[in-house]
Structure formats: structure tokens, C-alpha cells
Amino acid sequence: MSENVCALYKKCGGCQMMNLPYDEQLKWKEKQVRILLDKYGRVSPIIGMDNPYHYRNKVQAAFKALRDGRVISGVYQSGTHRVVPVDACLLEDETADAIIVTIRSMLRSFKIQAYDEDSGRGILRHVLVKRGFTSGEVMVVLISAKPAFPSVNNFVKALREKHPEITTVILNVNPYETNLVLGPHERVLYGKGFIEDTLCGKVFRISAKSFYQINPVQTEILYGKAMEFAALTGQETVIDAYCGIGTIGLVASDKAARVIGVELNRDAVHDAIANCKRNAVKNARFYCGDAGDFMTAMAENGEKADVLFMDPPRAGSSPAFLQSTLTLTPKKIVYISCNPETQARDLAVLTKGGYKVRAVQPVDMFPHTHHVETVVLMTKTGRNG
Ligand code: SAH
Q1: Which class is 11-51+215-380 in CATH?
Q2: CA–CA separation, 272 vs 291, rounded Å?
Q3: Which terminus of the chain is less hemmed in, N or C, by CB atoms within 10 Å?
Q4: Pick from 172, 184, 181, 122: nearest CA to 147
Q5: pLDDT tens column, 299-322
Q6: What is 58-199's CATH topology?
Q7: Residue 331: pLDDT above 70?
Q8: Which ligand 1 atom lies nearest to the CA of residue 268?
Q9: Whose CA is nearest to atom 13 of ligand 1?
Q10: Which residues line ligand 1 (CB under 6 A)?
Q11: Where are the domains positioned within the chain?
């Protein structure tokens, strides 16, 4: 058994591996990567965390009213809409957890009801908290089923008195029957509507909806490896595909001639452009669109790129993306992945197209869960097939 097992380990389902000591978790993850990727290149030992607890800087809680009127908050049991009450989690940021408990304790006196999915009664569906690891800035997002939230300004004022560390509060309205936590509309109730955090020496703006790596300590290590693999000299044209809020591209921008980022999520692109200005980066451009379409257009226009960073979601890349990559023929590809299975599938296409895997580095971004992140360096071999 691990030295620090959570009482909710089985019920919640968030930590699939908490029954194993941390070093055994790491061995298991490294083995999974070897099984999938060893055939392409040598897999380096996984980089774990020194302190693998409370690393999650983004915490989300579902709220539910019980029959007796009490309100619980916590996580949905894996694959269900049953709320498992969670007040403190070994993975989550402790400030974020404390804020969620405070919000729950305030609901009754403010006559705010938790939303009930079956009857459609009530209002508060979820609370999302994001905390900047280095900045300490805290964003609270109240996700409401209806646009009218009773005495919301007084509620926010009282919450801020209890938690002065909160720097911004947002009301997000999600009236839909959906698995998505956030709805399309939001209103800033307090502060600037986003938080900032420093990563690899650059400042990033994080809004309610945009993706930001949830483990900042390991992200610096992951991006550090990605930069080491790219070994930029200042002359290169760099593509940051699936760029989110522009993190990888902006970190690379100091050592590249120019950076082109592409991302599907409009809010994230908006943040990437703001991040570019915020860091006075002059050689990066960010575009909103499907990475596959974008790469295809680049290939058709006869454009060239020297280094491609790609960091797709769990589903991996699309065939169009991979084919246009082969047409663009960057000298190096640095492929960051949170799913070694789809990465292995994509590596099969790229190695067949003339790339060779030079390094495979697993990094443990999600201790106690079965997720594993890898960064792979590929270079062009000069032959196809
Ligand atoms: N590189 C960023 C984000 C990686 S997460 C970081 O490290 O922070 C993957 C990103 O891919 C998400 O921001 C998601 O919105 C985006 N994405 C998903 N499908 C996409 C597609 N087809 N084209 C472009 N971006 C996509």
C-alpha cells in the first residue's frame, strides 16, 4: 500500500493507482511506455515528482442537493453522474479545496440552491477553481444553470472576505443538459476575469475555458525536455501545433527565428495572442483552426518549417495532419503526448514517412492516476519508407 492512501480511493475513481507505492507506479508507467514505444527508439527512465501530492492547480466540484436539504460537493463517480462528496483531495491544490468547502457552507444563508439534474430545480451546478502556482492568483468560477444568481454580488463579497487570496470571480451560465462543465456565457463578477502564472520564465494568462497544464512543476520539466530535444539555434521556423494558450511556442520564441502556433479553441488562441504581447514576444503568430487543415494549407502553399512541436489531445493527430507534416518535412519533430497509445499509432505513420525516433522521455504529470505523458524527438532520415 502507498504511504498515503485516500479514504475515497475506490469510490471516487480519480486515482487509479493510489494502492501502489509511488516508485511502483513510476515503474508501471515506464513499462507501459516501453511496451508501446520501445520499438521506435530507446525509452529513458521516467521522471517522477519529488512530492507527488496536491499538484493539481485546477479543481472542479459538482454540487448536489440531497433529499434532506443538505448540499454535497465533490466529483462524479467515474462514468456516472453520482456525486461522491470530496472535501479534501491528495492530488488537488489545498487552497482550491478549502474555497469549495467555504462556498458550500455559505449556500444556505444566501438561499442558493444546488442544481438538480432530474427536476431542473436549483441553480449552482459546479465550482471551478484555478490557482497560479508561482503567482498565487486564484480564479473562482461559479457555474450556474440560470443567468439570474440570487444576491451574487454580496455572495462574492462575503467569499472574498473569507478568502482574500481570490483575485477573480466569474459567473458562467450553463443551462444545457450536457457533460461539459462550462457553458458558453460568462460574466466577470470580480477582478480581471483571468489569472496569470509564470512558466519557464514566461507569464501566461489563463482564462476559465482555456487549457493549461494542471501540474506546473512537471510541466516545466516536460517543456525543458522538449526544448532540449529541439536544440534551437535562433535560425529556425517553429510550428507549435495544438498550442493551447501558446505555452510551448512562447517558451521556444527566444531561441527561434519565428513561431507559428495553431489551436482550435478560440478562447485559448485569444489568450495565446495576449500572452505574446504580455511577454513582448515579436516573432510569434497564433492562428485559430484545425491543426490538420492548417498544416495542409501550409504544405499546399509550399511553406517550410524547421521544427514542429506537436501536443495533440488524447485522440492523437489526424491523418491529414500527419500527411501534411510529411509534405512539410520539418527537420525535427518534438511530439508531446498524454496518450502513448495514439502516439504509437502516429509514430508508425511518421517513421514510415522517413522520420526516426531519437529519444523517448516519459514524464509523470499525473501521479496516482494511470495517465502518462511522453515527449519524443524525431529527425528526418533523408529516406522515405
Ligand atoms: N500545447 C498546449 C496545449 C495542449 S492540449 C499546452 O501544453 O498547454 C491540446 C490542445 O489541442 C487543446 O488546447 C485543444 O483545444 C487543442 N486541439 C484539439 N483538437 C485540435 C485540432 N483539431 N486542431 C487544433 N487544436 C486542437
Answers
A1: alpha beta
A2: 15
A3: C
A4: 172
A5: 999 999 999 999 999 999 999 999
A6: OB fold (Dihydrolipoamide Acetyltransferase, E2P) (2.40.50)
A7: yes
A8: 13
A9: 244
A10: 211-213, 242-244, 247-248, 262-265, 268, 290-291, 311-313
A11: 11-51+215-380, 58-199
